[in-house]
Design brief:
The complex is a heterodimer of chains A (about 375) and B (about 475). Chain A contains 20 helices and 8 strands. Chain A has about 375 residues and is α/β, with parallel strands linked by helices. Chain A is globular and about 80 Å long. The model of chain A has no long low-confidence stretch (mean pLDDT about 95). Chain B has a 7-stranded antiparallel sheet, sandwiched between helices. In chain B, helix 15 runs antiparallel to helix 16. The mean pLDDT of chain B is about 95. Classes of the chains: A alpha/beta (about 375), B alpha+beta (about 475). At the A-B interface, helix 1, helix 2, helix 3, helix 5 and helix 6 of A face helix 3, helix 4, helix 6, helix 11 and helix 14 of B.
């Protein structure tokens, strides 16, 4: 079978080798290539339609390729590294919904991250982020509240995460109840943040510091398994910690992943219709796109209505957008609510941030744990 | 035309931009941006040579401000202020135009319409109403969910907007059945100088004088700013057939399609690739390699589609190559990466689309390929035929090359384009089929239009006496 580039060799021929042919053959052989940020910057935004910011804000500067162009110009020192020019780069949700449509499978969030890191290193930081950095430094909690809970012990550690601890403590109680019903004697410890907010804002040094501290606490707890309600925490523990050489001894699962292993043995019934909202971190970053829906499919009598769009960020992921441009984050959440409304009035999700962002305005958004607990009780 | 950022910013302004900005900020408030990052982002569209400049730190132009209207009233205010102050105004959709039609050549204000994105389907009338800024993928997804399709799939489907399609007279890959955007536009609303919103209602047909809707289709923003369009929709196809063929010659494949169309069959997709492009796109299919490859999709009502498939199979003279090449094409048709791979290392690459009647189609193909290859530095030139009519065909040429020593990328680029345009005109073709004119192609327009060029210029100035609407684009 002919190779991918044989046509080019046939076409260019020997006579043209002396001009630009050699250059092209180097590209074909993989010996010459532009860096990824440049490639992204030269794209016509083939992923624009998948980017929630692009759809809602509609601004060229914050389109995926638009962000890459700004990052490239800053990197090449053609435009200044200042807050005004950094603002488009922080108008990225980090949802990576762009990646499936990229011919190179790039994550725009990853491509522009070095420029954010450079900015933080140089002290060019938005005021809105300083509080986050300070909170993480001092209390180890993104909200600035030190967790005063007692440290338990056992095989299964339930890691609540900053959002659950501060905004949805009742979800933590319900998750522990569900785990107990499933036969797991789960315990909690006094927690510190996984570090993702610092990472998302470009403060990689702080991320590593917080992550090391959290990893030490988690390793010291002696559990074999960590279960978390927050897909961002699960992603950080499973993907980012190894990437930065931070060792976490226990296995880490998002609660839906644990439920996926045991749900077949449960008797669950319902007589209602729901739709579902797939959190980006679970569906895209942990690669469990079909998991939430498959859990719901185990509930007898439940009518599952497809959301208008299977994947669309709630607008609050990634920390930066909701802190820097809360109106835009809310507009994106409103857009997502509109898409979900085409399915059913009740929405099941599996991320505390998504739940908080999307609840209201005629929609009842409920965490999968609460939903299944209801079904079990009935 | 290339300048560094600083040089562009120091250029003399046209009109009273300072007063215009004060007024616009009063009326549109935070929907006006003068941030450098925004100005830079709207300094170009997808005119490919501009990316070579960008990599060197040059931009073709910079606007003084960008505005983001959220209503027709905002657009009316923008046009009124621009007219009063003599400030240029450039409408902007998805920025995927490839000829510089939205480049803010004289400074002024870029109007990004992407926040006008409301949608409404009228099922009984088989019609959709869309704000100019609705994203291409979004409108198709919206219609599909309700059992309809627009049938409009340009390669820019994902980044482009509905208003951009109409303004540039775009066409989609399924055009042989569904037509270009001009066949879908039923009505539209536009704001023209001195700041008036006009509406051309979406009647099924009207004989109220010359068709003013057509004046705006392909106008590239030189008359006004479209804010809303009504487009025809079709029921989602019931059945789809995928066919492909290998032919020994381009003439044989072209003749086959001509016969199919003349019998009244309307396949949605027909694409005939020359030998180079067949090798390039279908290298995994041995039966096509080294031949002229054709992919065809027939779709629609089940019975009608079956009949059309039969006509295609009967009339196409070539060796059937099955469904797989078509599946491959469907899977890869939006996989655009050549510019990103080759432009950064100095390879100049671009596409040129022209149209010609059947009687001179093969001749035009040969002449344009020969002309492009004759330019020193050209490494490859190829083409496929991608849109078909009873009367003729569109050829879509691709060239790549490296400027020879002593010649800039722009000089090489222009030399290949000149050769291709000259060969097209000499072969009886039209210089553009669907990419339009923009700033790059305007120097060939007068020859193509002859005395009609002056008619176009007079219409432009009759509507826009101060020449504030996209000045310098298309007509000088």
């Amino acid at each position: 079978m002919p190779g991918k580039w044989d046509w080019l060799k046939d076409e260019i021929g020997f006579s043209n080798l002396l001009t630009g042919g050699r250059m092209i053959f180097k590209v074909v052989q993989g010996k010459l290539s532009a860096d990824d940020l440049t490639k992204c910057a030269l794209c016509s935004n083939m992923c624009r339609h998948a980017c929630p910011v692009s759809i809602v804000e509609g601004r060229e500067t914050t389109s995926p390729a638009g962000k890459a162009r700004i990052a490239l110009m800053i990197r090449e020192e053609r435009i200044e590294l200042n807050l005004d020019n950094l603002e488009p780069l922080y108008t990225c949700l980090g949802c990576d919904l762009c990646t499936p449509y990229c011919p190179f499978e790039f994550s725009v969030a990853d491509l522009i991250r070095p420029v954010k890191e450079e900015a933080v290193n140089m002290g060019v930081v938005f005021e809105e982020f300083r509080e986050v950095f300070e909170n993480l430094e001092t209390s180890g909690d993104v909200y600035g509240n030190t967790d005063s809970g007692a440290d338990g012990s056992g095989k299964v550690l339930y890691f609540r995460g900053c959002t659950v601890r501060n905004e949805r403590p009742e979800l933590a109680e319900k998750t522990l109840t569900l785990l107990e019903k499933l036969g797991y004697e789960a315990f909690t410890i006094s927690e510190t943040c996984c570090g993702l907010p610092a990472y998302n804002l470009g403060n990689t040094e702080l991320f590593k510091k917080v992550a090391k501290r959290t990893a030490e606490r988690l390793n010291a707890a002696g559990a074999e398994l960590i279960v978390t309600s927050c897909p961002s925490c699960a992603y950080t523990f499973r993907v980012l910690y190894p990437k930065y050489g931070i060792k976490l001894k226990p296995q880490v699962l998002h609660i839906t992943e644990l439920l996926g292993e045991v749900i077949g043995g449960l008797k669950l019934k319902a007589a209602e219709a729901v739709t579902y909202h797939n959190p980006c971190k679970l569906a895209v970053h942990l690669g469990r796109r079909g998991l939430l829906k498959s859990l719901l499919e185990n509930v007898e009598g439940l009518e599952i209505r497809e959301p208008r769009r299977e994947l669309f960020c709630c607008g609050h992921g990634g920390s930066a957008v909701s802190r820097l441009k809360p109106e835009l984050a809310e507009e994106i959440a409103a857009e997502r609510r509109e898409q979900l409304r085409d399915g059913a009035a009740r929405v099941v999700t599996a991320c505390p941030s998504c739940e908080l962002a999307l609840n209201g305005d005629g929609l009842e958004v409920i965490d999968i744990v609460e939903f299944l607990l209801e079904r079990m009780e009935e | 035309m290339t300048l560094t950022f600083d040089e562009v910013l120091k250029r003399p302004k046209r009109g009273n931009i300072d007063e215009a900005l004060v007024e616009l900020k009063r009326l549109l408030k935070d929907k006006v941006s003068t941030k450098p990052a925004d100005l830079f982002s709207y300094s170009h569209d997808y005119w490919l040579i501009t990316f070579h400049w960008l990599l060197k730190g040059e931009v073709p132009a910079l606007p003084d401000a960008v505005i983001f209207p959220e209503s027709e009233e905002d657009v009316v205010n923008a046009v009124r202020v621009a007219h009063e102050k003599g400030v240029p105004l450039y409408p902007y959709g998805g920025g995927s135009g490839v000829l510089g039609a939205t480049v803010p050549e004289y400074g002024g204000i870029v109007v990004d319409l992407k926040r006008l994105r409301d949608l409404r389907l009228y099922e009984d009338d088989l019609m959709v109403e869309a704000g100019a800024g609705v994203n291409g993928y979004y409108i198709e997804e919206y219609l599909n969910r309700r059992g309809y399709t627009l049938g409009h799939f340009p390669q820019s489907l994902y980044p482009s907007t509905v208003g951009g399609w109409v303004a540039t007279k775009a066409i989609g890959q399924f055009s042989t059945r569904y037509g270009g955007i001009e066949d879908m536009v039923l009505g539209l609303r536009a704001v023209i100088p001195p700041g008036k919103l006009i509406e051309l209602k979406p009647h099924p047909r009207t004989a109220t004088g010359p068709d003013l809707r057509k004046l705006f289709v392909g106008s590239e923003g030189i008359f006004g700013i479209m804010t809303r369009v009504w487009l025809k929709v079709r029921p989602y196809p019931e059945e789809r057939f995928l066919l492909s063929f290998a032919s020994e010659s381009l003439e044989e494949a072209l003749d086959s399609v001509r016969r199919i169309l003349h019998r009244g069959a309307r396949p949605a997709v027909v694409r005939i690739y020359d030998r180079v492009e067949t090798k390039r796109h279908f290298y995994k299919f041995e039966e096509l390699y080294g031949k002229i490859g054709t992919v065809i999709i027939v779709e629609g009502d089940s019975r009608l589609a079956r009949a059309e498939k039969e006509i295609v199979e009967r009339e196409f003279r070539g060796v059937p190559a099955g469904e797989e090449p078509v599946r491959h094409w469907l899977k890869t048709r939006f996989n655009v990466k050549e510019i990103s791979e080759f432009a950064p290392i100095g390879v100049v690459i671009d596409t040129i689309e022209v149209a010609v009647n059947w009687s001179r189609a093969a001749e035009l193909y040969e002449n344009v390929i020969r002309a492009m290859k004759s330019v020193k530095g050209t490494l490859m030139a190829s083409a496929h035929a991608s849109h078909f009519y009873d009367q003729g065909v569109c050829f879509y040429f691709t060239f790549a090359g490296v400027p020879p020593k002593g010649r800039s990328a722009e000089e090489f680029y222009n030399a290949v384009w000149d050769a291709a345009m000259r060969a097209t005109l000499d072969s009886g073709g039209t210089i553009s089929h669907h990419h339009g004119i923009g700033r790059h192609r305007r120097r060939w327009l007068a020859e193509e239009l002859g005395d009609a060029y002056e008619v176009l210029r007079k219409i432009k100035l009759a509507i826009d006496e101060k020449d504030v609407m996209n000045p310098g684009n298309m007509v000088m």
